[in-house]
Structure formats: structure tokens, C-alpha cells
Amino acid sequence: MTGAALIRTLIVDDEPLARAAIRNMLTRHDEIQIVGECSSGAEAILAIESGAPDLVFLDVQMPEVDGFGVVEAIGIEHFPCFIFVTAYDQYAVRAFETHALDYLLKPFDRERFDAAMNRAMQQMRRKESADEMSLRLQELVRESRAPHLQRFIIREPNRIFFLAAKDVDWIEAQGNYVNLHAGTHTYMLREPLGEIETQLAPGTFRRIHRSTIVNVDCIRELQLLFHGGYTVVLRDGTELKLSERFRENLRKDFLGKL
Questions:
Q1: pLDDT tens-digit profile of 138-164?
Q2: C-alpha span between 108 and 111 (Å, rounded)
């Protein structure tokens, strides 16, 4: 932040009263310019990408795409300075304090709001490096997650939503992208297969080919081929090749019969 430039501020909360409370308290801060309000995580992602705010008041608990989902969708390295707004209890909030990312615990008063604002202002004045912020956000997101990936953030032209990992039948590599096959639907995700593999629960998902990961619960049978290889047949009839290299990944699931 330089000179008297206004701080472009975005308010994100699915509760109208919470948005109004933040808006009203911001009127006392002449350096703030409110550039928008969002009632969902999906709206927030679009607003941050298109508007590049300097500061975001970000609700943690929102339906479909929550606060952490917004951070993940934008990308940790590109996320602006922010203040979490949360209904978490005091024990959960310790994670935010540990990483010097401020929060407002609902319901909050003016004194607590101003304290959070002051900390955010100090952070922006310090011009903290992107690397330092990135490290803190990575740690925070990691603490907020379950041990393994539970859901994918799917971005389509008119919507952004979560797809539960357990609902994915198989995953197909397409260069630096993957196709997530879930029932009759296929969703493209901009992330390499190898990176996704490290995040999935190994007991549920198995790599069966250099370009394929399969949900073990969706396997109906293995068919032996004449040359000694196997075809993996899913419940919907989809046939996938099991390569020799990854055959060991299915050995335990099929009682050592391979």
C-alpha cells in the first residue's frame, strides 16, 4: 500500500446480517473502499479473480464452497490479504492465531473489529512477501483439511461447486489436466494426475495405469486377457486397462489372485 491509495475491500458472507455488520463498521475507516459483497464462495471466487481486491473479509462456513474452498480455488500464491469471519469455537480459532491470519469470531463487537483491521493494515504496510504469506496459507489449509482429499472444486462457465471424491468412479489424465468421471458426468480439472494421486486416500483410490486412477469401490470385476494382462471393469461397464507396472496396487483388493 502506498500513499493515500484506498484499500479495495470485498465482503464475503452468506448471512446478510453479517455482511451488513461488516459494512457498517467499515464506514469508520476512511481508507477503505468497498468494491463488492458476495453471499457465497462461488461468487467470491469470481469477484476476487475479476476485481483483484486488496483485502477480503471471508466467512469460513458457507454452503457448497466454504472459505477454505475459496482460498484453494484462487490459489494460495494469488490470494489477497484477508480476515476470516467464523463461528468456530475458541479452540478451532487457535489455528488462525498461530499463523498470524486474523479472524472475527461471530458475534463480534466494534473493538474486536477494529483490532482485526489494525492487524490487517500492519500486514499490508509491511508489504509481506508472497512467499511468506503462501507458506502460512498452505499450513492453514493443511490443518483445515481431512488427512486425504475429500472433495474437488469444479469450475464451469456458470457455476463453481464441490464434487465429493467418493462420487468419482475413475480419473483419467489429459496432459496437465484430468477428467473426473462420476456416473454419467465428466468434469475437467486443471491439475496433473500425479499431484492428485498424492492427495487421494490410498485405500479407496488405486493407480492402475500411468494415465488412470480408479475408485476401488466402483470395480465390478477383472477380466483376464489372452496375453495374461487384465481389464478392469467398472459397475457401469466401463473397461480400463490394468498395466503390469501398477498390478501390485490391486493385489490386496483381489485376494492375491492376480
A1: 555 555 555 677 788 888 777 778 888
A2: 8
